[in-house]
C-alpha cells in the first residue's frame, strides 16, 4: 500500500492520544485533546470564508448512486443556505458501501482507530468553519456552536473510538489452546479471533446538535469496521456534510475506500430515513430525535441494532440549599442556555408548596419561583449577553410551543423577544416559567409531557417526599436525560440517589457554580443512562460499542 | 452483617479463581477450575442417592407466591420423575424479587461475583447429583450429562461472571474531576459511578442442555445485580431446580435475600413463559429454543433485553483432506454424539459431485458418503459404546423427524435402534444419513430447514465454489451455530474464512482428532457468533453482559 497516510505515520501522530483517551475513560478525570476556547483556533476569518463559500452551491462528494440533488436549509438566523447535496439511489449506494467493508475489516482495530483519530483531528482543524455551519443550522449562538459543535463533539467522537478500540482488543487476535489428556498427548488448537463488522451503520442526525449527537454513533460504527451512511436532519445537513467530506478525504489518503462514509440527504417529505432504516444492508442505526420515530425504529428496524436518544422530562427537586443565590444563578443559566433547546435542559422544578429552607432563611414557594424568574431576568437583562446565551429558536415548532405556554398555567416569567444586532430575522426568545399546582390533576398533562424549548414548569408539590415520588414517576413513565437536586439534608440526598438508582437516571446535586446540569464532559460524564425511556443507550460505554461488531473464531489443529 | 459467608471469607476462597478466569478470557488459552473427569468427584453413590431422594416428592423452595405445585417430567430413559415444583403467582413473586434487588445492587460488583463463584463451587460439589438430574431430563448419556451438564456448564457460568465483573469495574466507583479555567480557579466535581441492575432477568431453559445453556444468562444477570427468575423447560426442571436451591442457600448464608433467585414451573399448556416475558418487572430474558418462540420474544418483550439462541443449519464443506480416515472418524463422532441433538451438530455435509482429493487418492461423492456411513457404523458397532455416545432421544418430536427422514432423499445410512441394558424403555437411535442432490430444487426444502436430531444430509454440489455459495446462503437465511471445513487448499481455506467473516459464523477447519466441531470450551471458544439468525448473542463476550446493567453517575461540587 502506498497510501499517503501510512500506518506508521498514523501511529506516530495519534497512538499517544488514543492511549490517553483509553486512560481517561478508565479514570474519568478531566481530559480533552481539543481546546474549547476559540482563541486556540487560528484564523477565524478563513473559517467564516470557508463557510460562506459553501452557500448557494452544490456540495459534491463524488459518491456512487447520486441520482439527484437535494437541500432545503434555512438558517434560524434568517440566511438561506441554498446548498444542494447528493440525493442517493440506495440500490446503487448501499451495495457500493457494502463492498468497501472487507478492506476496512481487514485493517484491524488499531489501524481503524488511528484513521478515525486522523478524521477527528482534521475536523478539529476546521473548527472555525464548523462553528458557522452549526450556528446556521441549529440556531446555537456562535460560542456554543463553536464549543458544543466543535471540540466537545470531537471529544465525544474520540471517546467512542476509544471504547470501540478497547472492546475489540479484549479478545486476542490469536491463541494457542492446549488441553491436557492425562497420560496421552495433549490436544492442541490454533485459534484466530477476528472482529467483524455488522455491515452498514446508519446515523440519523438531529436538528439541534448534528455533530455532538452524531459523532458517537458515527465513530463507534466506523471504528468497529462498519461503513457509515449519514442521514442528517434536513435542516442541519452542512455540519455532517463537512464531516463526511473530511472522512472520505482521510480514508482515501490512508488507502481505504472512501465510500466507507457517505451522505444521504432527502427531498422534502420523502421520508428517506424510514426507507433506509429497513434496508437489509443497514445493520446498525444511531438516532437522536422524537420519541415517536425512535419507537418506530426500535419496533420496525429489526434487522439492525438500534441506539436511540428520544424525549424525556428532566426534573429538578428543590428541597433546601445552603447557597440560595448560587442555586438560582445556576438554574437560570441552565434554563436559558440555547433557549432550553437541549435534551438535558431541566423542565420541571419541583418545589414544596410550604417553601424551602435556605442560607438566607426560609423561602415560600412563590418566593422561590419569583426569585428564579428574577435571576433569569437578571442573567438575560443585557441583550448582547442574552443573544450570546440564547441563540435562536431552531424551528417554528419550538416557537409554537412557547407561544402556547401561557395557557398551561400561571405565568411566573413571560418570554420576551430579543433583537439580534446582526441577524434581524432571527427568532430569539427568553425562557418562560409557568407555575403549576402538582396536586391538580389537569396540570399533569402539561408537566408530564416533554415541552421542548424555552418553557419550564415550577410545580408546587406537597413535600419533598411528594417530589421524590413524582420524580420517580416522571423518569419511569417519560424518561429523563438529567435529574438535578438541591438539598442540605443527607437523608434527602440519599433518597434522591435511591430514586435515580432504581429508575436509572443521571443525577447532579447542588450545582451552584460553573457546572450546569445540562452539560456533560466526554471521558468523564455519561450522557443519558440507557436505562429509562429517554434513551436506550448512554454516551459512551461498553454497551454502546460491544454489539456493533462480532468476533469470528477460526480454529485449526495446532 | 453477621453472615456465615463473610466477604473476607469469599475473597479468600474465590478471588484467585476470579482473577484466573479474567486472565483466561484475555488469553483464551486452555483453563478450567472444574475437572471434567468423573473420577475427580468423590462418592458417586451419594450423588445417585441424592437424585433418587428427589423423585416422587415435592421440591420445596420456600418462595413467596407459591399458589400450587406443578411438574410433569418423564425421563427419556423411561423413569417417571414425579417431582412437584412450586407454581408461582407472578403478582406476588415478582414484587418480592424486585424488592430484594437494592441490597444486592449495594453489594457491588466484587461481592456479587464472589457470591456467584460460591454458588458455582457448591454446584460443582454436587456434580454427581446433577449428572443424574441432567441425564434423566435430557436423555444425555451419563458421561456427557456429567461433563456437559456439570463442569462444562459451570465453566460457562463462571465465564459469564468474569465478563460481568470486568464490565462493571471498567468505570471507577468514584472520580475527582478538575477542569482548568485559565487564570481563574479550576472547577471541580466529585463523581460517583454505580452499576445498577435492570431489574429481574428471566431465564427460559431448554430441554437438551438446561444447565449449559442456562448458566451463562443466569450468572450474567445475577452478577450484574439483577434478580433472576428461572423458568425451566417443563421436561428439564430438576437440574435448574437444584441450581436455584443452591443459589438461594448461598445467598442467604452470605446475608442477601434468597428471593434474588427463584424458580417458576408451569402447568401443562399454561404458557407461563409468555406471561412472564411480558411483565414489566422482567427487564432481561435469556432464551434457548425454537426459532418461532425466540422470534416472538424478540418482537414482543420490548421492555426487556432479549438474548436468544434459536435454530440454525450447520454446514460442513468437504473440499479435500490429507487425513481421510481422521476426517471420517471425526465427523462420525460429531454426528453421533447425543444423537445429533446439539445445536452445534453438523446437519449438511456439502460434497462436490465429482468427488474430492484425499491422502488415499481421489474419492467420488458416493464413496465419501458410503465411507462416512461406514465410519458411523464402525463407531457405533458395539452397543455399549453406542449407548455411551448416543444417549436417548429427548422427546417424541425428535423421533418423528427421524422416522420421516428416509422420505427426504436417498438413505445412505439407516438409523437403527439400540437396546439399553439398564433402561429398556429408553429410545436410543443411531443417526441417519440422507443423500440429496443440491441441484434439485425440491431437495432444498429438506436441507435448508433445521432437522434437529440424528438426521444429517450429504448434499452433492457442483463444486467447492458452489458449496461456498450454499454455505453463505445457509448462514444468511437460516443461521448457523457452527461451520466446519475440510480442505488442503490455502485458497479454499481463505474463501471459507471470508464467507464466515462476512456472514458471521464460527469456523472449525480440518478437525481430524479429538476436538469436534460441536464442542466449545469456555474461556477460549465462542459459542455462536451473535451475528447470524441462529443466535443474537455469543457465549460469552462483552456484548452479552454490558447491557444487563447501567451506570448511574451522581456528581456534586468538589
Automatic annotation (TrEMBL), chains A, B:
Keywords noted in UniProt: NAD, Oxidoreductase
A single MF term (Gene Ontology): L-glutamate gamma-semialdehyde dehydrogenase activity
Alphabetized InterPro entries for the sequence: Ald_DH/histidinol_DH, Ald_DH_C, Ald_DH_N, Aldehyde_DH_dom, PaaN_2, Proline_metab_enzyme
One Pfam match: Aldedh
Single GO BP term: L-proline catabolic process to L-glutamate
Cited NCBIfam families: PaaN_2
Name of the protein: Putative dehydrogenase
Source organism per UniProt: Actinacidiphila reveromycinica
